[in-house]
Amino acid sequence: MKKGRISALLPILVFLAFYLGFGITFEYIMKIPMGFYNVPIIVAFLASIFVACIQNRAVSFDEKLEIMAGGLADKNIITMLLIFLTAGVFVGVVGRSSAESVAYFMLSIIPARFSVVVLFIVACFVSTAMGTSVGTITLITPIAAAVSSASGFGLPLCVASVMGGAMFGDNLSFISDTTIAACNGQGCRMKDKFRENFLIAFPAAVVTLVIILIMSFNTEINGLVYNDYNLVQIIPYLLVLIGGIAGFNVFLVLITGIVSGMVIMTFTGQITAIGLITNIGSGVSGMFETCMVAVLVSAMCALIREYGGFDALLYGIKKVFKGKKAGQLGMGLLVGTMDIATANNTVAIVMANPIAKEMAENYGITPRKTASLLDTFSCIFQGIIPYGAQMLVAISAVSELGYSISAFQILPKLFYPMMLMLSSLIWIFLIPEKRDGKEK
Fold this sequence. Notes:
Blueprint: H1 10-29, H2 41-54, H3 61-72, H4 75-109, H5 115-130, H6 133-151, H7 155-172, H8 177-186, H9 190-217, H10 231-246, H11 250-267, H12 273-285, H13 288-307, H14 309-320, H15 324-342, H16 345-363, H17 367-382, H18 389-400, H19 407-410, H20 415-429
Helix pairs in contact: 1-2, 2-13, 3-13, 4-6, 4-10, 4-11, 4-12, 4-13, 4-18, 5-6, 5-7, 5-9, 5-10, 6-7, 6-18, 7-9, 7-17, 8-16, 8-17, 9-17, 9-20, 10-11, 14-15, 15-16, 15-17, 16-17, 17-20
InterPro entries: Na/H_Antiport_NhaC-like_C, NhaC_Na-H+_Antiporter
Domain Na+/H+ antiporter NhaC-like C-terminal: 42-214, 245-398
Transmembrane segments: 6-29, 36-57, 77-95, 102-130, 136-159, 198-217, 237-255, 262-281, 287-308, 329-352, 414-431
């Protein structure tokens, strides 16, 4: 095992110092409203990449450019960028009116008191069917924003409930990239890993629902909850939700929503053809920052990996955690650390797989349990990091609809990742293991 170079992790520290430093200063010292939202995250990553570029003089600048380009040449990164842009088109096409129609329709058939509970449950089902948390958040966050505006529930709670539900499905879905990466890396069947995972995720989801219900009953519903809505405008959202539950490809689902939205918005006289094109452009533009973050993170992490920063992390974790139960926690923190560094849970699992497999052999941990640990902990950390794709796309979707919110307003309401962490620790340290001695 290579010791690596701990100094290679300096760019990550620079980013955190920049982002958190300015955010705390703006929000709590200067008392600027939405202080964290005003921190230029692109500039923070540019500063981090600059630091990475001036490190390791043994590698020429041209070679560093090639390394960064190699970091972008990944299917998951390209897929993520395309989802971002396609989602921007969808938001631009359907706009605020469609989202509000969905919200008012939901509130007309269920008590307003349970609207946030419904958001969480719908996000769980859709993300499990689609296998993508980003796609789920893209589709349902506009509805969450409209529900918040209509019912009086706080926007952070509504958005966080959608994010939590999205991470539930990302963790359990058979077609999720994280599931595929974890199972292939550890050599176990998906259904075996699902069984392990379900025992952790389901209790966390139930407790999350209870917390949301308690908050719902303690929330005063203000203003007019029921309002006029256009059922025709709900069709694009119904199509994407049905497509998601049916398990169709996220791109097919989004394109279906876009085409149906264009037809409906145009032929019902809600918007002119020129206005529709303008909105599409605005929707795509709203995702540019999110796309750029994904690109810069990938480039930065490619340099960190090349310099030995990830090797240093792997080496340190293996030296610290000894014993079977501690080894399981070490695996979780390993992939969590990778996720913090890469802001991509699939990439984190791929990177952690080799050392996790070696740790599993040393500690006597089954492949299905190892795969479950890697997937679960990667989803825990991915669901809470303020610069992760899930958080960024949620903020972008809300912003496109004319609202504003910061990651640090959402974080305290992310009950599901918190409960998933608690459930994972109970599962590791308190639940007796089955002694069947067999691994299927």
